[in-house]
Amino acid sequence: MTSTSEAPGAAGEPAGAGGPGAAGEPGAANGTPLTRALGPKLLILFVIGDILGTGIYATTGKVAGKVGGALWLPFAIGFVVALLTAASYVELVGKYPKAAGAALYTQRAFKVPFLTFIIAFMVMCSGLSSASAAARAFSGDYLAEFTDAVPPTLVAILFVVALAALNLRGVSESVKTNVVLTLVELTGLAIILAIGAYAVFTGGGEPARLGEFQASGTGYALLTSVLGATALGFFAFVGFEDSVNMAEETKDPERTFPKAIFIGVAVTGTVYVLVALVSSLLVDYTTLRDSSGPLLEVVKAGGVDFPPKLFALIALFAVTNSALINIMMASRLCYGMANERILPRAMGRVLSGRRTPVVGIVFVSLLAIGLVATGEIEGLGDTTAFLLLCVFAVVNIAVLVLRKDRVAHRHFRTPTALPVLGAITALVLASPLADRPADVYIRAGVLLLIGIGLWAINKAVMRARNES
Fold first, then answer.
1. Cβ-based neighbours of 43, under 8 Å, separated by 6 or more
2. Could you give the CA distance from residue 59 to residue 376 in angstroms, rounded to a whole number?
3. What is the pLDDT of residues 131-164, one digit of tens each?
4. Are 252 and 102 in contact (CB under 8 A)?
5. Global confidence as pTM
6. SS (H, E, C) 92-117
7. By three-state DSSP, how is residue 358 classified?
8. What is the model's pLDDT at position 357?
9. Contact 47/260 with Cβ under 8 angstroms?
């Protein structure tokens, strides 16, 4: 998942087609247009590939721990919430087909540079917490199928270092690796669904579990249990917002994006609900809860002679894919904000020869190492969802504010009720009603304080230069 090649322009309007929104690649800010190479089919595949990943492979068990056997319900609710916000993104990308995203929409709607920076930095941090959750998933039960000789925290740290090294080598190598890993993770989910189909047709599994809730007592306890599980499960849906950054490389984006985003979210949402149903049908929620490799438990309980080690290898590839793309995009966003003089200029330094954003890669990798050293899968995944739910609330409000901004071309317009519901549901899921542990808010707050500190230092340096 996720989601992180967005950035604002310099203190006023966003940098439009160029700037950080284009991932900081050469030529993005010099007026040279990007090649419109993506058609509808490729864009749909991009959206699906961007959403699928660590969330479903690593957090299914943690969602089950919050809600019980009815773990399909949070994924179904998350699917609806994702569609509401996706509708807002579709309207905005059709209206402003630029390679930017939430930061662009925030700046156009509210024209408050500091708020624009906060949104951009939250998007970047959500990518880092997502990559860190993937690192923790990599070091858990999936890897334990092969070895448990190395402490999980050390494995997770070495995993982040290896991804940083791949990013330093070059974007070409990173993207080629991503294509291969996307195909692998799709294969893994297809295997889970095939095992579930076999179980249903042979009378296996426990259908009664599908209606069991972990919470007992008052209706409030059940409500917070479901909301908490939905908030965590929403981690699996993030990523579709990344596709707006491909607007300038898409053929006829005003017509292509609505179909691509809605089909992409619908396909992944359907797959997630089916995987959740299969998981609960075959494995008790307590077993899923206690595993950092929940889908491996499904394979073992499915009654199919499929090698657990092979599935564990597929899962390792899947979580690697999510971490790779998030580290890559977060480093490019950091680079872009430095180039736009929003972060210190030194953070935009490029590695000679490789032309990769070396300081940005080192910075985001150090933050990721700090996250994996102090958090577990559930907390890191919840942090990702919390940060993006806050961003989504702002985007849903922005689409309503920007209704007064008319454009000459035709574009998709979502019914007004959808962004209203999208903002409300995002805020509810980001609130304490979602039974989120305090460490999630603390972790997100520390990340934002780091960003605000860098922003303040940069403002002071720029002020001193202007006065000298």
1. 243, 246, 250, 256, 257, 260
2. 11
3. 999 999 999 999 999 998 999 999 999 999 999 9
4. no
5. 0.86
6. HHHHCCCCCCHHHHHHHHHCCHHHHH
7. helix
8. 84
9. yes
Q: Tokens 């930017």 — which residue?
A: 100
In contact, 413 and 402? CB cutoff 8 Å: no
Count other C-beta atoms under 10 Å from residue 422's C-beta.
28
Secondary structure (DSSP) of 276-303: HHHHHHHS-HHHHHT-S-HHHHHHHHSS
Asked if residues 196 and 274 have their Cβ atoms less than 8 Å apart, the reply is yes
Q: In this predicted structure, what is the pLDDT of residue 35? A: 54
Helix (H, G, I), strand (E, B) or coil at 250: strand
CA distance 103 to 78: 23
Cα 187 to the center of its chain, rounded Å: 20
- φ/ψ of 402, rounded to 5, equals -80, 0
In 3D space, the residue among 105, 103, 25, 30 whose CA is nearest the CA of residue 329 turns out to be: 25
Contacts of 415 (CB under 8 A, 6+ apart): 87
List b or e across 258-278, with b for residues whose CB sees 16 or more CB atoms inside 10 angstroms. bebbbebbebbbebbbbbbbb
- Interatomic CA distance for residues 293 and 315, integer angstroms: 8
Report pLDDT digits (tens) over 45-72. Answer: 777 877 887 789 988 999 999 999 999 9
Residue 14 pLDDT greater than 80, yes or no: no
What is the Cα–Cα distance from 271 to 277, expressed in whole angstroms? Answer: 10
